[in-house]
Structure formats: structure tokens, C-alpha cells
Write a structure and sequence with these properties.
alpha+beta; four-stranded antiparallel sheet; elongated
Amino acid sequence: MALVCAITNEVPDQPVVSPHSGAIFERRIIEKYIVENGCDPIDGKELKVEDLIEIKTPPIVKPKPPSATSIPATLKTMQDEWDSLMLHTFTQRQQLQTARQELSHALYQHDAACRVIARLNKEVTAAREALATLKPQAGINITSGVPQPSIGAEAAGIATQPVEQVGMSAEIIQKLQEKATVLTQERKKRGRSVPEELIGQETIRGFHTLASHPGLHSASVPGILALDISVSDHNKIITGGNDKNAAVFNKDTEQVISILKGHTKKVSKVIYHPEEDYVITASPDTTIRIWNVPTSQTTLLLRCHDQPVTGLSLHPTSDYILSTSSDKHWAFSDIRTGRLLTKVIDTSEMGLTTAQFHPDGLIFGTGTEDSQVKIWDLKEQSNVANFPGHTGPITAISFSENGYYLATAADDSCVKLWDLRKLKNFKTIQLEDGQEVKDLCFDQSGTYLAIAGTDIRIYLCKQWQELKVFQDHTAMATGVRFGKHAQYLASTSMDRTLKLYGFE
């Protein structure tokens, strides 16, 4: 068997063997390596020239040393260069192998660190949830003078709502009645004239898309399901998404003010409190949450229902919330104390789908999965009127600010208008076959009606004339709201965008 140098892979003229690694080397090559590195090139252990063991081989007759000017001398020089090149190549291979091992180790450490961080985050979230259930009850009036974080987390002071009903006291009923009296008088005064600031019909016809914002919610779970605009600051918009989060957005600065995280399922309903910087959200996770926007924290957690919450409406006093659910109940709760005032079961065989307070606050409407629209007396907690005529589940209802009209929509491609004084349907807006309606909204003056679904449409009330149609959403539109004096229109969609329409 021929001897081969471990460095040059050639048959050595003077073979030697390392006592440490047992590898065979050409003497002149290994001596150069030892002078430069002082170690065995195979196992890296310290090695001296005198430690090398010479291997006896038959003597080789070498030619006389060539002169510097001869061809043999040139060949000798090339041989020396080749030896140096082999040494360098061998060193490079060793360094490459070492770098590969170090990189592999670093990647393994990074992967292990990511797993530990993920586990710790999960444990922290679970600890916060456990801590939240131990904290005392707290209402909506919590000091907001805390530096605003960009992303909200579970509040340390979540209050869990009592399950028992405390009832509608005489004091509460009197408060509701007094508020209704004031609102009725104000509405009659406003009804005599149209606000001067209200955008005109021709301007509405000239509306076009001013902005489209796709970055409010996660792209991995696309879809915005709910929308509302702050009454006190019409630049602020709240949206609820499939990603289990609610986002508060300033349309003028085009900045996300706060991301509200806490629901364990999608956020299907949102309301911006008209007087304070709070928002209210509902979800199929059966809970209703009240959030402090500056701190991005849940201040109150209401558990009124046993099944998904499907409808949400704030009473004109701004102190009470109406909610409906698939569990066939509607509930009336105090958002200041977190108390469940009353909870009433509907006689319908199927669950409730939506809810909306009348502008006066003494009556409200609900929709059901079996196409019924019902009007309820809040003080008596009784069903006082029914509006049949739709087919399919009721998807949206909206009272006009004038107090006389109610708009309803269902899975039957039409919008029905009802006269609350005569309790009858006086107008049906029939849409194209297959057209869906997911949301309805009157502007604050009751002059315009917006419809969101397969597309976005604006109608002039009383004449019920179609003024404008927007078809730039790439998926189903889920929410629509007018800005102050109808100066702009906002809509959301399953295509993950918030779109703003107006006239420049």
C-alpha cells in the first residue's frame, strides 16, 4: 500500500508519521507547518519537529542539486510554490470546517432562545389573565393621565361583571325618562331646519375615494368587521377585526392611536363613547369590553351572555349598554358600575342578530335569525311591535335621528323603511339579486342613508333617491359611518381596508 501525505495527497519522498494523529506527512511540508503553527494539522495537538517519527522506505536516488539558471532549478522553485499552496489550501479547509461548526452552533442557540421567549410570553399572558380575575371591580371612570402605549395589553384592573340582575330601579327609569324628554325637544328643534354645515346632494354625488388604509389589522387574518366614529372628535375612528383586535385610528394624522388586545375571538361590534375617550367592543367570545384609549387597557369586562354577542348599542345617556346574543337574550347593563340591570329572553326560537336604540332611548329594536324585527319598550322590558316582511336573518337596523324612520336589512337583497308612527313599511329599496347588506347608517341630521355590503351606496331620505355608489372594495363591505355633517364617509371591508370618501 502506497504512503500518501495527509496534506498534499501525494506520495512523500521522506515520509514521517505524527505520534498524536497517526497521519503520514511529507517531512518538508509538515516541518513548514510546525514552524508556522506548532501543532498537528489533523487533531490540533502540540507537535514538535523532533516528535515526528521517520518511516523507513527504500532509498531514492536524487539528481544533483540544479543550478539556479537551469530548467531543473525552475521545476524546484515550482515544487516549493506547490508545497506552499497545498499548505494554504489545507489551512483554508480547516478554517471553513470550523466556521461551519460555529455557525451551526449559533443557529441552534438562536432557535432555542426563540422557543424560550415564546414560552415565557405565553406564561406572562396566562399570569396576567389570572391576576385580572383577582382584582376588584372598577368602572369606566378611571384616571386616564397615564402615558399612552402604542399597543394595549390585558388591564391589571379588569372588573368582572356580576351575573345576577339588580333590576331597573325607579331612579334609573326616571333618569331614562328625563333624558328622553330633553332629546325629544332637541330633535324637534333640529327637525325644523337642515344644518347649514351639512354637505349638499351635489357634493355627495361628487364624493370619491380620499384615502385607503390597509394596515390597521393583521394581514394573516384579514377582515375588518365593525366601524364607528367618535362624536366628540370626528377624526378618530374605531375598527374591529378578524384578528381579535380593535384599532383606534386618526384619519387626519393617518396614525394608529392604539391597538386594543384582549378578546379571544374576532371583534364583531365597536362603539366609540361620545363623551369620553373610551371604546366598547363585543365579540363571539361572549364578552363585552370597555377600553381606555389613552392607556389601551380594558377597564371593564362584562359577561352578560352565554353565547356570542351579536349586537351592541349605547344608550343616549352614555351610561348604559344594550347587547344581544345568539343565546336569545338582550341585556341592559350599567357601564359605570359594571352591573347587569336586566336580561330578557326573546320568544323567538332562534338567536338575536343585532340591536339599536331609538334616538330618545326609551325604545329599541332587535333583529333575529328568523327574519323578525322587534321593537321593545325599555322601561316595561316588553315587546311592543313587530315588523315582519324580510326573509333570512336580519343583518342590520338603524333608527333615523328624526325619530320617525327605521331602516332594516336582511339576507334578502333589500332594505326596508318603516314608519314608527304608523308601524308599517312605507318603502322598500330593492337591490340586485345576490346583493348583500351588512350595515346601515343615517347621518346625524337624518338626511342621508348609507348602505354597506356588496358595495357602498348613499341615498337621499324622504325621496329615497340613490346619490352615489362606491365599488372600490375588493371584498364585502362590513361597516359604514358618516362623519360630522356628512363631510366624509368611512367604510370597512373584509379586504382589510378602511376607506374614506369625500370631496376635495
